[in-house]
């Protein structure tokens, strides 16, 4: 027996993912309300789930949205919300809050149409009804919309590391897997299982909704020419170089001063051309580097508190580089 599932990704967003948090909260709240009222669960599924036959006839179109917030059991909602929590924040950070919400809902709707199309194809192939997605069975779950998020993520952050738990026959291990491989294999599995439903595979999972949603995410990123927000990289272009002797050091002395609302970084870099000094910042890390002839100066410092990755009050004077960043 083997299983593999993600814990978190190492790609941190710049802005807080309010829409992702809200979607997770709404889905969880609706599920637990239904969990407390199990007798009415199936009535809710048929009332608010997307029944393919109704959609084909142009009826109950609002269920294309409401079905995205219904889940059958704890494993169903837990798995979906885990993937949304891990991958949604960075896609939201790239799209912006409003565009991300629209993208999520449209992705879910188009994924449902992919599921309906697969049901029609199965019927056309004359596969037995007990192994064919029924046009009268309500489709529920956020997985189609989340698959659109995954499609966008794999194109925006292909090399982002996914911290993953791997379980094989009572043995548990952890691994960092690049998103292009983790989500690439996930998509390949969906395609293989989706094709299997056309040739006798019985499953309650709407694999073609996953495939359709994933494709929507990729197409959206391509057509919108969306680019991920990168860590700020700044090169000093002002102030003449200080006329002091260059010390024979490779790792410069760096000091971090923590105030209530900001931190100040001081780096001892005498004798360098400020135009060649490079600064890269993230929420938890600062990297300062420069090249002088055949000497490379490099220092990477872990910050004691999280900050907004934006350099303020940048100054290089008398061989000392200083700048501030506000606390996150």
How are the SSEs placed, and which strands pair?
Layout: E1 2-9, H1 18-35, H2 41-48, H3 52-56, H4 63-66, H5 74-95, H6 97-124, H7 143-156, E2 161-168, E3 171-178, H8 179-197, H9 207-224, E4 233-235, E5 254-258, E6 262-268, E7 278-281, E8 285-292, E9 295-302, E10 312-317, E11 320-326
Helix pairs in contact: 1-5, 5-6, 5-7, 6-7, 6-9, 7-8, 7-9, 8-9
Q: Strand portion, in percent?
A: 15-25%
Shape: elongated
What's the tally of helices?
9
Report mean pLDDT, rounded to a whole number: 86
Proper CATH architecture of the largest domain: Up-down Bundle
What is the CA-atom radius of gyration, in angstroms? 26 Å
**In the CATH scheme, what's the topology name of the largest domain?**
Rhomboid-like fold
The CATH top-level class label of the largest domain: Mainly Alpha
Structural class determined from secondary elements: alpha+beta
What is the count of structural domains? 2
Q: Classify the helix fraction into a percent range.
A: 40-55%
Counted beta strands: 11
Order of helices and strands: EHHHHHHHEEHHEEEEEEEE
CATH superfamily of the largest domain: Rhomboid-like
**Largest pleated sheet:** 4 strands, antiparallel
Task: Please give the order of strands in the largest beta sheet.
Answer: 4-7-8-9
Catalogue the unreliable spans. none
N→C terminal distance: 43 Å
């Amino acid at each position: 027996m083997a299983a593999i599932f993600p814990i978190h990704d190492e790609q941190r967003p710049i802005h807080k993912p309010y829409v992702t948090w809200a979607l997770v909260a709404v889905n969880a709240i609706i599920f637990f309300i239904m969990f407390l009222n199990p007798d009415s669960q199936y009535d809710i599924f048929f009332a608010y789930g997307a029944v393919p036959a109704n959609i084909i006839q142009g009826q109950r179109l609002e269920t294309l949205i409401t079905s995205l917030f219904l889940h059958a059991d704890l494993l169903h909602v837990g798995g979906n919300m885990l993937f949304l929590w891990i991958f949604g924040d960075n896609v939201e950070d790239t799209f912006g809050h409003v565009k991300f919400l629209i993208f999520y809902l449209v992705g879910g709707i188009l994924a449902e149409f992919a599921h309906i199309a697969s049901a029609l194809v199965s019927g056309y192939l004359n596969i037995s009804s007990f192994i064919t997605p029924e046009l009268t069975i309500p489709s529920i779950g956020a997985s189609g919309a989340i698959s659109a998020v995954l499609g966008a993520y794999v194109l925006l952050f292909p090399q982002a590391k996914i911290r993953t738990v791997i379980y094989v026959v009572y043995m548990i291990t952890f691994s960092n897997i690049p998103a292009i491989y983790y989500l690439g294999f996930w998509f390949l599995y969906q395609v293989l299982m989706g094709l299997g439903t056309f040739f006798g595979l019985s499953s309650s999972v709407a694999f073609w909704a996953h495939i359709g949603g994933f494709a929507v995410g990729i197409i959206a990123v391509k057509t919108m020419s969306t680019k991920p927000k990168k860590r700020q990289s700044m090169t000093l272009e002002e102030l003449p170089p200080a006329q002091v002797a260059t010390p024979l050091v490779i790792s410069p002395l760096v000091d971090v001063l923590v105030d209530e609302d900001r931190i100040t970084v001081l780096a001892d870099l005498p004798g360098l051309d400020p135009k060649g000094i490079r600064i890269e910042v993230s929420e938890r890390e600062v990297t300062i580097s420069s090249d002088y002839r055949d000497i490379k100066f490099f220092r990477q410092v872990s910050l004691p508190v999280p900050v907004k990755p934006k350099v303020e009050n940048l100054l290089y004077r008398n061989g000392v580089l200083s700048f501030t960043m506000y606390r996150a």
